[in-house]
Specification:
Layout: E1 2-5, H1 11-24, H2 31-43, E2 48-53, E3 59-70, E4 75-85, H3 94-108, E5 114-116, H4 123-131
Helix pairs in contact: 1-2
């Protein structure tokens, strides 16, 4: 397996993974909008998408990171917003490979760290992230929805 940064040439396979990820989070499938969204992020350089490819050149997992900043640390940090592995390839260490690639990127651009959130009910993620040296913060997380 190898992990690399996706670009527009990988879009159709990334869209399949991204759509499955959204469906897993109880959103309706919408590959047309997903493709437009991802291409916009790629072309505007608003996110970095890493993919994991198996020996058959099939993309089996992805993570998407967005740049943000910490005022108190006065440095860039990264929001690991999306992490997904196709159901047929779970348990093979794909998530760990993707997280390692994200950490390498954060270190290489001198970011202060990586922030992520997951649902309290995500048992797999809530075991995975501490095993990859992510610490559970004690801060409250609030969200304002523009309705």
């Amino acid at each position: 397996m190898k992990v690399f940064q996706a670009n527009s040439s990988h879009i159709d396979q990334v869209v399949d993974l991204f759509d499955a990820y959204r469906v897993w989070y109880r959103k309706p499938s919408d590959k047309v909008s997903a493709k437009a969204f991802l291409l916009e992020r790629i072309y505007a350089k608003e996110s970095i998408i890493y993919v994991c490819e198996n020996e058959n050149q099939q993309l089996i997992g992805f993570t998407q990171l967005y740049p943000i900043f910490s005022s108190t640390r006065m440095k860039r940090m990264w929001l690991l917003n999306d992490l997904f592995v196709h159901k047929d390839f779970r348990g093979l260490g794909v998530s760990k490979l993707l997280i390692q690639k994200a950490k390498e990127m954060a270190k290489s651009n001198n970011a202060c760290g990586i922030l992520l959130e997951t649902e309290k009910s995500n048992d797999i993620g809530n075991k995975l992230y501490p095993s990859e040296d992510f610490e559970l913060e004690e801060n409250n997380f609030y969200f304002w929805a523009n309705k």
